[in-house]
Amino acid sequence: MSEDEHARRAREIARATEVVAACRKCEIGSTRTNSVYGEGDPCAELMVVGEGPGETEDKLGRPFVGRAGELLDKMLLSIGLPRESVFICNTVKCRPTLDVGHRLANRAPTPDEMRNCRPYLDEQIALIRPRVILALGAPAAKSFMGERFSITKQRGQWFEGPLGIPLIATFHPAYVLRQTGGAMTEVKKLVWNDLKQVRTRLHEAVVATADGAPAQSSLFD
User: Fold this and answer.
1) 74 lies in a domain?
2) How far apart are alpha carbons 171 and 150 in whole angstroms?
3) Is residue 194 included in any domain, yes or no?
4) Domain that holds residue 48
5) Neighbour count for residue 189 (Cβ, 10 Å)
6) How confident is residue 213, by pLDDT bands cut at 50, 70 and 90?
7) Alpha carbon separation from 171 to 35, 58, 210 (Å, rounded)
8) What is the pTM of this model?
9) Which of 94, 128, 190, 213 has the fewest CB atoms within 10 Å, i.e. the most exposed one?
């Protein structure tokens, strides 16, 4: 990708970020601290889409920070992709919260919130045109494949995403972190298998590349 094209896309992302920051289509636009548009390479071959910002993301205005973000970074590095080389975003750009009396707790976005935010996500996909979309967790996967999608039964399978872009879903890093002992090991194996599929599809998409980096043979830590 040329430097001019990279710069053009970066300007478009900066413009869209300001639009999202001013958005008040949903009530969460008024309760959040910061909008979280997304970040990464505007010419990325891989786009990672999560559910929505959590408390730390809301404070910092960045997607996937904190423990889940650290694990995502390790997941990406396990297939040879540093965080800055991909584009990371969420289905909704503001933190969905639930008032539990003394504090605000995270919750899943409502269908209306996801519909209101969908044009922003579609715009991101159309601008970046990644070779692969990786959906993290059931809510993100369902936003593409519909409510009948089962993360336990259909993760690791390829689907046709927006604009015909290949799309695959796996478990959310936060879900992995909630597991313990043998359950965590098993879930990490499943995620690792899905990540290897992403790596293979990306390599297939750039057939001009010869052998590339040597394949990693162990789970991400």
Assistant:
1) yes
2) 11
3) yes
4) 3-205
5) 11
6) low
7) 24, 22, 31
8) 0.92
9) 213
DSSP state string for the chain? --HHHHHHHHHHHHHHHHHHHT--SSTHHHH-SS----EE-TT-SEEEEES---HHHHHHT-SS-HHHHHHHHHHHHTTT--GGGSEEEESSSS--EEE-SSSEEE-PPPHHHHHHHHHHHHHHHHHH--SEEEEESHHHHHHHH-TT--HHHHTT-EEE-GGG-EEEEE--HHHHHH--HHHHHHHHHHHHHHHHHHHHHHHHHTTTS-S-SPPP-S---
Residue 182 domain flag: yes
What are the tens digits of pLDDT across the range 1-26?
Answer: 899 999 999 999 999 999 999 999 99
Per-residue pLDDT of 92-101, as tens digits, reads 999 999 888 7
Structure tokens at 42: 């505007």
DSSP for 77-115 reads HTTT--GGGSEEEESSSS--EEE-SSSEEE-PPPHHHHH
Q: Which two tokens stand for residue 10?
A: 């970066």
The total number of structural domains in the chain stands at 1
Query: CATH no. for residue 35?
Result: 3.40.470.10
